[in-house]
Amino acid sequence: MDKKVMNNCNLSTKYNDLSIIHSKKLRVDPANFKILSHCILVVIATMFAKEFTPEAHVALDKFLVALSLALAEKYR
Ligand code: HEM
C-alpha cells in the first residue's frame, strides 16, 4: 500500500470532515470503528480467500486501524 496512504497525519487531514460528522453530528461511539473494521476484514477474507495472504491481512488491518484513528480524531 502507498506509504502516503498509510501516513496517519495525511489520513487525519483527509478525513477531518468525516471525523467531525461521525463525532459531533452522528455521535457514533468510536468503539464501533474497531468493530466495523473487523467486520470489513472478515468479509474481505471470506470473499477473497485466495488473495487474503498474511501480508494482505496485515496491510488491510494496519490501514483500517489508521483509518479508525483518523475518524476518532475529533472526539477529543
Ligand atoms: C471505517 C469506518 C467508517 C467510514 C470510512 C465511514 C464513512 C462514512 C461516510 C463516507 C459517510 C457519509 C457522510 C456524509 O454524509 O457525507 C458516513 C455516514 C454515516 N456513518 Fe460512517 N463510516 C465509518 C464508520 C461508521 C460506524 C462505525 C458507524 C456506526 C456504528 C457509522 C455510522 C454512520 C451513520 C449513521 C452515517 C449517516 C448515514 C446517513 O444517514 O446518511 N459509520 N460514514
TrEMBL record:
GO terms, biological process: hydrogen peroxide catabolic process
Under InterPro entries, the record lists: Globin, Globin-like_sf, Globin/Proto, Hemoglobin_oxygen_transport
- Which residue ranges does the record assign to the Globin domain? 1-76
A Pfam family hit: Globin
Task: For this UniProt record, give its keywords in alphabetical order, as a comma-separated list.
Answer: Heme, Iron, Metal-binding, Oxygen transport, Transport
Which superkingdom heads the taxonomic lineage of this protein's source?
Answer: Eukaryota
Q: Name one GO cellular component term.
A: blood microparticle
**One annotated GO molecular function:** haptoglobin binding
Question: What protein family is recorded?
Answer: Belongs to the globin family.
* UniProt protein name: Hemoglobin, alpha embryonic 5
Q: Which organism is it from?
A: Sparus aurata (Gilthead sea bream)
